[in-house]
Known about the structure:
By secondary structure, this protein is α/β, with parallel strands linked by helices. It has 16 helices and 19 strands. Helices cover 36% and strands 23% of the residues. The strands form four sheets. Strands 1, 2, 3, 4, 5, 14, 15, 16 and 17 form a nine-stranded mixed β-sheet that branches. β7, α5 and β8 (150-157) form a beta-alpha-beta unit. α4 (102-118) packs parallel to α5, α13 (327-342) crosses α14 and α14 (350-364) packs across α15 (398-404). It is globular and about 65 Å long.
Amino acid sequence: MKQIDLIIKNAYLITMDPAHSVLTDACVAIDGGKILEVGGADLLERYQAAKTIDAYGKYVFPGFISTHSHLFQTMLKGLGRDKFLIDWLNSSVRVALHEFDEETVYYAALLGCMEGIKSGTTTILDYMYAHPIPGLDDCVTKAFEEIGIRGVLGRAFTDVSSFPPEIACPHVETERDFFDEVRRLEKKYRAHDRISVCMAPGIIWDHTDEGFREMRRTADELHMPITMHLVETPDDDAFSREKYGEDTIPHLEKLGVLGPDFIAVHCVYMRDEDLETFKKYDVKVSHNPNSNMVLASGVARIPEMLEKGITVSLACDGSASNDTQNYLEVIKAASLMQKVYHRDPSLMPASTVLELATMGGAKTLGRESELGSIEAGKKADLVLFDPLSPWSAPVHDPVSALTYSCSPDNIKTVIIEGRVVLEDGHMTTVDEEKVIREAQRLGTRLVEKSGLGNSQWGKKMPFIHI
Length: 466
């Protein structure tokens, strides 16, 4: 018998392979972080594992892939609510940005990743644009390392040079600094099993034309994706028309930035010709329904994108605009948002949304040969779903239950790169209680120092100190 790391037995597999195979009483053999074989009980006769997980009575899904977040924002949950995008930024993130330090970013990333894992997320793309002091990207990747998630660091740039003195950042990055850091981080994580890097330009107004051109050259040279907030609100096109005399997407096309490695985030205000441009260049879309609803940004044309063959994935966005990294909420919202907006209950069925959460995410990252389904040769990123929860029971269809009637209470075990990072609902890689307490302490300190806080019924809400 061959010695391997892990076997899952007695499993009900929703594989998300090209045939959408559903296997019962199945086994998955895992070694070296990869799936060796998927089959029946005969695998138990050929492999002997250091660890065996009995998945009897549980459903096994591929790990969910979140293609957009801002993990540093985990410290700003619930602030700046009930405002449009720019007003929200000016009343929460921008006010606090100058007070972020290494410890705060590290615990924000740990807590955000823990939320993600506990809701089935195995891969997360973090769009890190908070750089009031140097070195904060490394705090995020340190959290990736320690908690065991598959992390893509979207090294971002946002122009803070015009911030007023009272919220000015101690360190003001230049566009050149951005490219230097991209290269440093790419070199650092080039050979890492779980951590990789991509470029994440902020919004159309954060970069020069030459900066965007250099991004394309850098992406081609280093074989890394580019991800960017795009037409989340009408502000993008209004700025682009005023400065360049044309809308955002035509301008990026003219600069040569678009391509199959370009991940466009939000894409709410898409014209018909923009959809055709995305199809032409095989641009990928990261759909963030929860934050689009919180900020009343609008409803992206997801059903039309899918009809045209445009690749779409799902994401939570940052916790300052979504308030959580609960991926299960995003799965449900992605379905319900389109149904109610179009008044068509047939839109975005559970099977389609699960496709976006798994293979859609893998294709968006350009990693469909490694992620997104339970198949031999792929990374061993798996989620075990327990139906015996008051939120979901009785379960008659696991795909429907996942989409419409579950909670993180259903997610009992999460495996990333063959390693069990969540077991029986508890993290195996970090001290959960410590992470939560430190996040509460640091979050309260951050908000007090920034002068932030909410009022309810005309009264400012007092802080709780742990």
